[in-house]
Design brief:
The protein has 750 residues and is an alpha/beta fold. The structure holds 1-deoxynojirimycin (NOJ).
Length: 750
């Protein structure tokens, strides 16, 4: 009876809570519907009052600059703000300066339309997080979302309300410098990370003063630039475009991203900025994107050298008709759009639609309610580099570390080590730890790796530093001191890699080995025969075939951000056990590029037979595959099992495996699920990632990890380009990377 009573009151309690939630969410829903309606009405009212020039002003974005005296604006552009000819500004920094510019727009223009302020907030704003490629190696979607959240909190405290991120270009050619800005080579993981980043920037509610507009870029297929050369031609099949390059953009639309940026490249002869199929038919038509589209920097003007427009006037016409809403920095819309409308070549409906979308975004941010809501000097002081943000950056830097090699358990360093040599061109650098696109991050606020190591060691342990050589160049004068330093110590930590200008935009490299004479330095130092650990600071996969022969351990730290030094020190001394996994393949040889785990089998898969798909002078296998990363402990996989060997169309199966921690440390493992469709109406990759779980397993313990695989997860673009699963035989794989896996078979029934 008592039980009954308590159960019934519990039921009542739960029902009451459910009712409250339903009631509250229906209020929230109707509030958001009515807010949408009132924004739409306000926008129409405003649009009706606007002259054509004022409308085109809203479609024009100019940059601010940084002078010795602080932020500044070209006087010409300032005048354009005053006269309503510029509706958006980027790269303006500081709450105070943005307030000043906003005040100009509000108090001097006829219609007092607020400006929107954009910036490349890519991996942190002032507190710099690891580069996006590094963050992706955490496989930790919550942490990635939080990193974007922190960036938005800091940027919005400085007046910024629009970031040119996330960059969601799938990239499979590590020569391309911009692989550093994305989430790697895999589309499935890329979609999840794209969503997490959009959510992090935009938060739950855009009207909050600490949320900012996200911008999915670069639409589309910029990552497929021929030979990894930036801005180069892209020519991918429709199937590859839809299957590999477009899904992360669609994921951004689904996550509510309010803006998109066109890419610099052409696809099959049509540059994105003039590509109506891409911008209007796919993005707006097929995906129902409601936000606005900005060009990349002067990319309307670049339609001329691309060779599809004779002059700027024609370029402006092509872009407007393709569906571009805002011209970044090129002033083409400003100079030619009115005439194009007046001559009847561009219907005013294109202009009205673009302005509608831009004003709607400004209204969604709450700028019409309070244009200065992002300019709060007090918040700026409180939020930038606050302890909570530094701590998130530290955690993210640790999670991004990937242990590539650890012979003789060289890492973590043993307690018996009393003298440590810290050698290498990046050991004492601060600026390089920030990496490219470091927004307003300051090198002066970064602790170098050698200093972080000095701080981390107990009294009685000595650190001896030698630079050895420069990142690039061929001066060997420092080698002798480096070798002497190694000889007198018990262990060597080499800090090698690229400097921050070697990746990012316009930073393609034809040779992606360690630059300069760093391999020689490692070889010289290794002659001291001390446990030698290489820590890498870089923005792309490198060819490490030579380096891995001369060192005992390799810790890939990427450009790790403001707190990178401490993260590395924590890992080297064992207070953090690395768990990152590569999201881009590390080639064994430059000539293998492009190389990625989900390649096709070919009609002549590699074998001992000469006439099969392989090189005469290099292996087919990469040095470190996608999904790979070691831990201080060891994980062993066994007992892959399927709850059924048959999956019904519309149904699912459950796949599980046991993972045992057989080493001496507690550790996290990213357990990965891959699938191969053995035969389809078109060929399918040898493996495709379909799921993953990051689990903590205590030493000596084991865990069963299971995945649900649905038939819809097996869908692809078939011979007729319809997206659907096809019945037949499949293989499923579970493992700690894309190469070393357990496998089982199942069939998808018709
Ligand atoms: C050019 C880059 O391609 C793009 O990613 C960036 O957002 C803009 N410049 C603005 O800085």
């Amino acid at each position: 009876m008592i039980l009954f009573k308590s159960r019934s009151s519990k039921v009542f309690f739960i029902a009451a809570i459910a009712f409250c939630f339903a009631f509250q969410s229906s209020i929230a829903f109707s509030k958001s519907v009515s807010r949408k309606a009132s924004i739409a009405a306000m926008v129409e009212e405003l649009l009706a009052k606007m002259t054509l020039d004022e409308k085109i002003g809203q479609m024009t974005l100019f940059t601010s600059h940084w002078a010795n005296t602080g932020p500044t604006m070209d006087p010409k552009n300032l005048e354009q703000i005053r006269t309503g000819k510029c509706g958006a500004v980027f790269n303006a920094i500081s709450a105070e300066y943005i307030r000043q510019l906003q005040n100009t727009a509000i108090s001097e223009t006829r219609l007092k339309i607020p400006l929107i302020f954009g910036h490349d907030v890519i991996h942190g704003h002032r507190t710099i997080f690891p580069i996006p490629l590094a963050e992706s190696c955490s496989w930790d979607l919550n942490a990635i979302e939080q990193a974007a959240r922190v960036a938005a909190i800091e940027a919005s405290a400085q007046g910024i309300n629009w970031t040119f991120a996330p960059m969601v270009d799938i990239a499979r050619d590590p020569r391309w410098g911009r692989v550093s800005e994305g989430a790697g080579e895999d589309t499935y993981l890329g979609c999840l990370i794209a969503k997490a980043r959009v959510k992090g920037f935009q938060g739950e509610d855009l009207t909050k003063p600490d949320t900012i507009l996200a911008c999915a870029k670069h639409f589309a297929a910029y990552g497929a630039a021929q030979a990894g050369r930036d801005y180069h031609t892209v020519d991918v099949s429709e199937r590859t475009l839809f299957e590999t390059y477009l899904p992360p953009f669609k994921a951004c639309v689904d996550a509510g991203a309010r803006t998109f940026m066109t890419s610099f490249n052409e696809i099959a002869g049509v540059p994105s900025t003039a590509n109506r199929d891409l911008l209007t038919n796919i993005l707006r038509g097929l995906w129902n994107f409601q936000g606005f589209i900005v060009t990349d920097y002067t990319s309307i003007n670049e339609l001329i050298p691309h060779g599809i427009a004779a002059d700027e006037r024609e370029a402006g016409k092509l872009s407007a008709l393709a569906g571009v809403d805002m011209d970044m920095q090129g002033a083409v819309f400003m100079n030619h759009l009115a005439e194009l409308v007046n001559s009847g070549e561009v219907s005013v409906k294109y202009i009205d639609n673009a302005v509608r979308r831009i004003l709607t975004a400004k209204a969604e941010l709450g700028l019409f309610d309070d244009p200065f809501r992002y300019c709060d000097v007090k918040r700026e002081k409180e939020k930038l580099m606050c302890p909570r943000h530094l701590n998130s950056a530290l955690e993210m830097a640790k999670k991004s570390l990937v242990l590539l090699k650890n012979e003789k358990n060289a890492l973590p360093l043993k307690k018996s080590v009393k003298k440590i040599a810290v050698i290498g061109p990046l050991a004492d650098s601060t600026a390089d730890l920030l990496g490219n696109w470091h927004a307003v991050g300051l090198a002066s606020e970064v602790v170098s790796i050698v200093d972080a190591i000095r701080k981390a060691v107990p009294v009685g342990v000595d650190i001896h530093y030698a630079k050895g050589c420069d990142v690039n160049g061929n001066n060997r004068e420092g080698f002798r001191k480096a070798v002497e330093t190694a000889r007198k110590c018990d262990a060597v930590i080499l800090i090698l890699g690229e400097n921050e200008t070697m990746s990012g935009e316009a930073a393609s490299r034809a040779d992606i080995d360690l630059p300069g004479i760093q391999n020689e330095l490692a070889e010289a130092v290794s002659k001291a025969k001390k446990p030698t650990i290489a820590v890498l600071i870089n923005g792309r996969p490198l060819v490490l075939t030579r380096l891995q022969k001369s060192v005992d351990a390799i810790l890939e730290a990427w450009f790790p951000g403001t707190m990178g030094g401490k993260a590395i020190a924590d890992c080297v001394f064992g207070s953090y056990n690395p768990a990152g996994k590569l999201t881009m393949t590390f080639p064994a040889h430059l000539g293998q590029i492009p190389i990625h785990y989900n390649m096709k089998n070919t009609g002549r898969p590699m074998s001992d037979n000469k006439y099969t798909s392989k090189y005469l002078d290099a292996p087919n296998e990469p040095l470190y595959p996608f999904g790979y990363g070691l831990s201080y402990t060891k994980f062993s996989y066994s007992n892959i099992s399927l709850d059924s060997a048959e999956m019904k169309m519309g149904g699912s199966i459950n796949i599980s495996a046991d993972i045992a921690n057989t080493g001496n440390y507690d550790g996290e493992e990213v357990v990965q699920l891959y699938v191969r469709d053995i035969s389809g109406s078109v060929t399918r990759p040898v493996k495709e990632l379909k799921g993953f779980k990051k689990v903590l397993i205590e030493k000596g313990k084991s865990k069963k990890v299971s995945f649900e695989l649905k038939s819809e997860d097996l869908a692809f673009y078939g011979i007729d380009m319809s997206f659907a699963p096809e019945p037949g035989k499949f293989q499923v794989f579970v493992g700690g990377n894309s190469r070393d896996t357990l496998s089982a078979d199942f069939a998808l029934l018709p």
